[in-house]
Amino acid sequence: MTYGEAIRAALRDAMCSDDHVILMGEDIGVAGGPFGVTSGLLGEFGDQRVLDFPVSEAALVGTAYGAALCGYKPVVEIMFMDFATLAMDAIVNQAAKAHFMFGGQFSVPMVLRMAHGGDIHLGAQHAQCLEAWFAHIPGLIVVCPSDAADAYDLMRAAIENPNPVVFVENKTLYRTTSAPRNAENKAELGRGRIVLSGNDISVVTYGAGVQWAKDSAANLAVDGIDIEIIDLRTIQPWDEALVLRSLRKTHRIVICHEAVTGFGVGAEIAARLADVGFSDLRAPIRRLGADHMPAAYSPKLESHSRPDSEKLCRAIKEVLSYA
């Protein structure tokens, strides 16, 4: 199945197994959501469990937060990650802190689905990758699956988690397909995955970056370069132990993501590895992300400012150039 179909299947299966799971969002019912992920669920579960909301993210997330405190398991669709800015109080000041502030008496089993990323030319207000914002907030879990199999597993895990989960979905992946995995390789919150084993250099990434890394691996193999690809899957908490094991093997690392490079997920991982993995490094840590500019409408300008497999290949070769 496709990435989008996998998310829909996870939502449907969760709703079938637990009457407390409800869907909330703008145009998620009749319209099926902007990317068709919730298509057909209104007809199957009715408007008491698939709730269309007016165009007010603050009202949407605030209501979902209250529902979660009352025992429901709301899954909220925020059309574009950019629009989460309109609901930051409910997410950051309320949902993320409720368990702590009330001495563990309340949990907030709420999932916030957000589409991020460019390459479909929607401009500066519909293409931002803001996952580092949410990863900075204690109390929030941040997830970004890279394929359909992980999207299904991680959505089911997110719905069952008693804490608020920001579930990041890359727009360019919705129509991509992947084969199911066996039970031993089932995705879990907080655990990354070695996509490709290698010995020369480690590439740590997530979301759309995993495909860039795969393409880079194929291109670099022609030159005899053997890269290891780590898919973080979960950004907060990230799988530090897995990344450190890979670094001990390859001694070189590139961290790649679609978000702007500065003050991002890559910056946090690089800082941590420089602290606890310094003795294993034989070359500087390299970060690859988008340029520090808003996403452009122009396809050429957008492509110029975003990372891709070609830029990742160059970054890998630069790190390998160090003796």
Characterization of this structure:
This protein has two domains: 3-173, Thiamin diphosphate (ThDP)-binding fold, Pyr/PP domains (Rossmann fold); 193-320, Rossmann fold, CATH 3.40.50.920. 37% of the residues lie in helices and 18% in strands. The protein contains twelve helices and twelve strands. The strands form two sheets. It has a seven-stranded mixed beta sheet with strand order 2-1-3-4-6-5-10, with helices on both faces. Strands 7-9-8-11-12 form a five-stranded mixed beta sheet, sandwiched between helices. Helix 10 (265-276) links the parallel strand 11 and strand 12. The longest helix is centred in the N-terminal third of the chain and has 15 residues, at 3-17. 48% of the residues are buried. The mean pLDDT is 96.
